[in-house]
From TrEMBL:
Alphabetical list of CDD domains matching this protein: FN3, Ig
Signal sequence interval, chain numbering: 1-22
Residue runs in coiled coils: none
Listed InterPro entries: Cys-rich_flank_reg_C, FN3_dom, FN3_sf, Ig-like_dom, Ig-like_dom_sf, Ig-like_fold, Ig_sub, Ig_sub2
Region (Disordered): 531-559
Protein name: Leucine rich repeat, Ig-like and transmembrane domains 2
Domain Fibronectin type-III: 366-455
All residue ranges annotated as the Ig-like domain in the record: 253-345
C-alpha cells in the first residue's frame, strides 16, 4: 500500500510540477553541482526503485529505503550515471541485467544488503566500474570467473560476508591480476587495486590451500586492506591467521578395515570398524546388501587429523544380519569403500542357513504410528512410534518412493531409532512412504502418501538458477540452503494445515473408537496441493466407515 501511495504521489508530482527532466521523486532531494545532478533518497519507505528517474543524473544514492531487489534494467534510462550507492537496503536479489545501460558507471556500493549471490556477468555492462563495495552482505560463494568482467577495478570489498572456501583461480583468472603481474616492477604502469577480504568465516582445510598461498604472496599493485585473514574452522585451525597455518593438498578417501571377516555368535553385539584417510573430511555411509543403512548408529571419531574411524554397531545379532557390510567414504574428489563380511556362528542351527524371512510373532500385529513430523524446503522428516514386545531389538524397514512406481527404496533402520529424513524431494510429485516392522511388507495404516508443492515461483526460479551456477562452478563448496521442492510458504502452511486437520480428525477418531487405532492413518492421496487440502478433509471420514479394520497387505500390491 505504501508503494502504491508513493507511486500515486510521484505521478501527481510529475503532473503538478513542470513536466520534463528537472523533476525530483517525492521524498528525495535533487541537487546540482559542478559534477552534475545528484539524487538522494534517505530513509524513505519506497521499497522499490522509482520508475522514471530523470535521465540526467550523474549520482544516485538510495539508502535505508527497504529496497529488496535490483530488477532488470533498473537504471536503464539514466545513461550518464557514474555513482550508484544503494547501501543499507534489504536487497536480496540482483537481476543479471540490472546494470544494463550503465556504461559510464564507476562506483557501485551495495554495502549492508542481504545478497547471498551476485550475478557476476552483470558487470559486462559496466566496463568502467572502479569501485565495487559488497561489504556486509551474505555472499557465500565466489565462482572462479566472478571477476572476469571487472577489468578496471581499483577497489573490491568483500569483507564481512559468508565466504568460507574459494579457489585462488578467482584471482589468477582475473584479467586485472594478470596485467598487474606482467607489469610487476614497472611502477606507474598499473594503478593499485585494493582488496578487502577479511571477516569472512574462512574454512582452512585443504580446499583453501591455494587461496591461503595467494594471500600470503600478494604484493603491490594488489594490496590487501587487511592482510590478517583469519580461519574460523575447522576446530584445529580456528582463530589462526593465514600466515600461521600450513595446509596440505586434498586427498581422495582411502577406506580400510582392521577386520574384514567377522564371525560372532547369535545375539552378540557386533561392532564393525572402518578407517578412512581423506582430506577434507569424508562423509561415510554404510550399506548392507546394497541398501543404505541410514538408521543404524554409526559413530565417527577422529583418529588423527586426516583419519576418521566409523563404527557401526549392530545390537543383538539376528540371522538376518548376516551378510556383507560396505563402508563407503566420499569427499569432493572421490570415493572409496571397503566391505566387511559378518557371519554368525552357532552350532545349534542346521546348515544351510535359511534365508532371512519375516518372523511371525506377536509383533506381527504391532501397530506402527507414522507421521510427517517436519517439513523442510527439501523434504520431510518422518517419525514413527511402535509398541512392540522387545523395542531394543525391533528394527524397521522404510519403503520410500514415487507413489506410482512399483519399486520402492528400502531402508533398514536399527532398533531405538524412530525418525528418518528425506531431503531430495522433487516438486509436484506424489510420494508414498511406509514404515514396517522388521522386513514385513507394508500394510494399510503404515503408509503415508504426500505430494510436494507446485513448481517454484519466478523469483525463486531466478535464485535457483543462480545457485545452480554456483554448484557447477564451485563443486568444492557447501551449497547454501536452497529453495527446491515444496516451496512457497503459502503451500507449506496449506500442507501444515492439512496435516494438522488430519491429525485432529485422527484424534477425534481415536476418541470415538477407543482402542481401535488402525485405519486412522489414511493416505493423503492428492494430485495437487489444493487436492491435498480437500482430500484430507473428506477422505478420512469416508474411509473410516468402510475400511476401519486393518486389512493386511492392501498396500502390498505396490511392490
Ligand atoms: C560517458 O562518459 C564519456 C566520457 O566521460 C562522455 O563523453 C559520455 O557522454 C558519457 N556518456 C553518457 C551517456 O553520458
Ligand atoms: C571369511 O572367512 C571364511 C573362513 O574363515 C572364508 O570361508 C570366507 O571366504 C572369508 N570371507 C571373506 C570375505 O574373506
Ligand atoms: C549389547 O549392548 C547392550 C547395550 O549396549 C548391552 O546391554 C548388552 O548387554 C550387550 N550384549 C552383549 C551380548 O554384549
Ligand atoms: C565412486 O566413484 C566412482 C568413480 O570413481 C563413481 O563411478 C561412483 O558413482 C562413485 N560412487 C559414489 C557412491 O559416489
Ligand atoms: C558362516 O558360518 C557358518 C557356521 O558357523 C559356516 O557354515 C558358513 O560357511 C559361514 N559362511 C561364510 C560365508 O563364511
Ligand atoms: C545350543 O545347543 C546346546 C546343546 O547342544 C544348548 O545347551 C544351548 O542352549 C544351545 N544354544 C542356543 C542359543 O540355542
Amino acid at each position: 500500500m505504501d508503494a502504491f501511495y508513493v507511486a500515486i504521489r510521484i505521478t501527481l508530482v510529475f503532473y503538478l510540477v513542470t513536466p520534463g527532466s528537472s523533476t525530483c521523486p517525492v521524498g528525495c532531494s535533487c541537487t546540482d553541482d559542478n559534477l552534475g545532478r545528484s539524487l538522494l533518497c534517505m530513509e524513505t519507505s519506497m521499497g522499490q526503485i522509482p520508475k522514471d528517474i530523470p535521465e540526467d543524473f550523474i549520482k544516485i544514492r538510495i539508502e535505508k529505503c527497504h529496497l529488496t531487489e535490483l530488477p532488470r534494467a533498473s537504471f536503464f534510462q539514466v545513461r550518464a550515471l557514474e555513482f550508484l550507492w544503494l547501501n543499507f537496503n534489504e536487497i536480496t536479489l540482483m537481476n543479471i541485467k540490472s546494470l544494463e545501460g550503465l556504461a559510464n558507471l564507476t562506483e557501485l556500493r551495495l554495502q549492508g544488503n542481504k545478497l547471498t549471490s551476485v550475478p557476476w556477468t552483470a558487470f559486462q555492462n559496466t566496463p568502467k566500474l572502479k569501485i565495487l563495495d559488497l561489504k556486509h552482505n551474505r555472499l557465500d560463494v565466489l565462482p572462479e570467473h566472478a571477476l572476469r568482467h571487472l577489468t578496471a577495478l581499483t577497489y573490491l570489498d568483500l569483507s564481512f560476508n559468508q565466504l568460507s572456501v574459494i579457489s585462488k583461480e578467482v584471482f589468477t583468472n582475473w584479467p586485472l591480476y594478470q596485467t598487474a603481474e606482467k607489469a610487476w616492477g614497472k611502477e606507474g604502469l598499473v594503478s593499485n587495486v585494493v582488496l578487502a577480504l577479511h571477516d569472512n568465516p574462512w574454512l582452512c582445510d585443504c580446499r583453501l590451500k591455494g587461496f591461503v598461498e595467494f594471500i600470503r604472496g600478494v604484493s603491490p599493485p594488489i594490496i590487501l586492506m587487511n592482510s590478517y585473514l583469519m580461519c574460523s574452522g575447522p576446530a584445529s585451525k580456528a582463530d589462526k591467521f593465514f600466515h600461521e597455518v600450513q595446509l596440505k593438498t586434498c586427498m581422495k578417501p582411502v577406506a580400510s578395515a582392521p577386520e574384514t571377516n567377522i564371525t560372532l555368535p547369535l545375539g552378540a553385539n557386533a561392532t564393525l570398524t572402518c578407517l578412512v584417510k581423506a582430506r577434507p573430511d569424508p562423509t561415510i555411509h554404510w550399506s548392507y546388501s546394497l541398501k543404505i543403512i541410514r538408521g543404524f548408529a554409526a559413530k565417527e571419531t577422529h583418529i588423527d587429523e586426516d583419519t576418521v574411524a566409523s563404527q557401526l554397531v549392530i545390537p543383538s545379532l539376528h540371522l538376518a544380519d548376516r551378510g556383507l557390510y560396505t563402508c563407503t567414504a566420499n569427499n569432493f574428489i572421490g570415493n572409496s569403500s571397503i566391505s566387511i563380511a559378518l557371519n554368525i556362528s552357532s552350532s545349534n542351527f542346521s546348515a544351510p542357513l535359511p534365508p532371512p524371512v519375516p518372523m511371525l510373532s506377536s509383533d506381527e500385529n504391532a501397530f506402527v504410528d507414522i507421521r510427517i513430523a517436519k517439513q523442510t524446503v527439501y523434504g520431510v522428516t518422518l517419525e514413527w512410534h511402535a509398541v512392540t514386545e522387545n523395542p531394543a531389538e525391533t528394527w524397521f524397514t522404510i519403503h520410500f518412493g514415487k507413489y506410482d512406481s512399483p519399486k520402492k527404496e528400502m531402508i533398514y533402520i536399527g532398533p531405538g531409532i524412530n525418525s528418518y529424513s528425506v531431503s531430495d524431494l522433487l516438486p509436484v510429485t506424489k510420494y508414498e512412504v511406509c514404515v514396517t516392522l522388521k522386513n514385513h511388507p507394508p500394510r494399510e495404516g503404515q503408509c503415508i502418501v504426500f505430494v510436494t508443492g507446485n513448481d517454484i515461483s519466478e523469483m525463486e526460479q531466478r535464485e535457483r538458477l543462480i545457485h545452480i551456477i554456483v554448484i557447477v562452478l564451485a563443486m568444492v563448496l557447501a551449497v547454501p540452503a536452497g529453495m527446491y521442492a515444496c516451496t512457497t510458504e503459502a503451500r507449506f502452511s496449506c500442507v501444515d494445515h492439512c496435516v494438522d486437520l488430519w491429525r485432529r480428525q485422527r484424534m477425534h477418531g481415536e476418541n470415538l473408537q477407543g482402542t481401535d487405532r488402525h485405519g486412522t492413518f489414511d493416505s493423503l492421496q492428492a494430485a495437487s496441493d489444493e487436492g491435498l487440502c480437500r482430500d484430507s478433509e473428506e477422505k478420512p471420514k469416508k474411509r473410516r466407515k468402510s475400511e476401519d479394520k486393518c486389512k493386511g497387505g492392501s498396500a502390498a500390491h505396490l511392490y
